[in-house]
Structure formats: structure tokens, C-alpha cells
Design a protein that fits this description.
The protein is mainly alpha-helical. It has one domain: Ferritin, core subunit, four-helix bundle (Ferritin), CATH 1.20.1260. The chain has a two-stranded parallel sheet with strand order 1-2. It is globular and about 45 Å long. The N terminus is likely disordered. Bound molecules: fe (ii) ion (2 copies). The site of one fe (ii) ion (FE2) has 5 residues, from helix 7.
């Protein structure tokens, strides 16, 4: 018998180790807020896909001497732009107007901890990338049981690709470092968990506990 995505519980879709990599799960209050604000969720989701492509593109410009990073980031940027197109199309079909909204505190709250000297800078950017991808993956999986069939199917596909992006970022971070990165991962994962667990005034895809 073939097992299809529909037979899997959402956590089965997550890459091994992802839930241990993140220091906390998404609070239930965020899930409730997301279900109460489906339009805002999709608009910010579109923003996140676009930003993910742009982050990968900026690495392509800065680290031209690293072939593995170039091929992974080029592929990732293309996939994120495809996700962006898919979200925008879904919004159009649902009559949701795309408008400018402010970014959440999340990405900036992580990037402020990135070291300024190389190779620490690159290692930290890649770990932050892994955290953002892992959190997106975890949130998609948590949302799936509550969504309509079309959105649930779309998010199942995203869990797989964002899960792969998390693994690629982590692999690249290990590759870029001269030694073990465990301490850095622990430090940044703890900051990430704070941003997710602390009260947040603006609801967004990566926001904290709704204040
Ligand atoms: Fe994506
Ligand atoms: Fe991604």
C-alpha cells in the first residue's frame, strides 16, 4: 500500500531533528490568532517567501567563492520565488488584496546577534536561516489540521521544501565553520525561542504570543 501525504500526521512530515533544533513549539495562542486572521497570515506569508528569496540572493552576491553555497542558494531563491507566486495566486483566488504590511520583529531580532567578523558572520547568517526555515516548517505543520483542503495541501508541500531548506542551511553552516557550531546554534536557538514565546503586539507569520 502506498502511503500518501494525506495519511500522515503533520509531524511525520517534519525532517528528523527539527523539533529538537527548535527550543520551543509554537504557542496555541498564536495558532488561534492565525486562524482568526487568515488574510493577514497569507499576506505576511507572501512577504516571508519574497524575503527568503532575497536573503538567498544577497548571499549569492557576497560569497561568490563558495560553489556549494552558490548552488544551494540559487536553487533556494528559485523555490522561494515559486512559493511567493503560489501564495499570491491563492490570495487572488480568495479575493485577498495584497497590501504593504510592516515586518515582524522576528528576523531583525535574530539578525542583530549575527557576528560582524568572518567566518562567524556567514556561520551565524546560515544558522539564522536554518532557524527561520525550521520555524516556518513547524508552523505550517501545526496549521495543517485546521485548514481547508486546498490550503492544507499547499502547506504540506511547503513543509517538505522548507524542511529541506532548514537542512541545507544547517549543512552549509557546518561547512562554513572551522570547528563545531553547537554553542552558536544553542545561543541563537535560545534567542529564537524568546521571540516566539514572548508577547508580541503585531500578529505576523513569525510573531510571538499575541499580546
Ligand atoms: Fe518558501
Ligand atoms: Fe524556505
Amino acid at each position: 500500500m502506498t502511503v500518501t501525504a494525506a495519511d500522515c500526521t503533520p509531524n511525520d512530515l517534519l525532517p528528523a531533528g527539527l523539533l529538537e533544533f527548535l527550543y520551543c513549539v509554537t504557542p496555541d495562542a498564536w495558532i488561534d490568532e492565525a486562524l482568526a486572521n487568515p488574510e493577514l497570515l497569507l499576506i505576511d506569508h507572501a512577504q516571508c517567501e519574497k524575503k527568503a528569496a532575497s536573503t538567498a540572493m544577497s548571499l549569492l552576491y557576497r560569497y561568490v567563492d563558495q560553489p556549494l553555497l552558490l548552488s544551494k542558494m540559487s536553487q533556494l531563491a528559485r523555490e522561494e520565488l515559486l512559493h511567493f507566486e503560489q501564495v499570491v495566486k491563492l490570495m487572488e483566488a480568495r479575493g485577498i488584496a495584497y497590501r504593504h504590511i510592516s515586518a515582524s520583529r522576528y528576523a531583525e531580532g535574530l539578525r542583530r546577534h549575527v557576528r560582524t567578523e568572518e567566518p562567524g558572520r556567514l556561520v551565524d547568517i546560515l544558522i539564522v536561516g536554518a532557524l527561520i526555515e525550521a520555524r516556518s516548517c513547524e508552523r505550517f505543520a501545526r496549521l495543517i489540521p485546521h485548514l481547508d483542503d486546498e490550503l492544507a495541501k499547499f502547506y504540506r508541500g511547503l513543509v517538505k521544501s522548507e524542511g529541506r531548506h532548514y537542512e541545507d542551511y544547517l549543512m552549509l553552516a557546518r561547512d562554513a565553520a572551522s570547528g563545531a557550531i553547537d554553542d552558536r546554534v544553542a545561543f541563537l536557538a535560545a534567542r529564537e525561542a524568546e521571540l516566539i514565546s514572548m508577547p508580541d503586539t503585531a500578529f505576523r507569520f513569525h510573531s510571538g504570543v499575541p499580546a
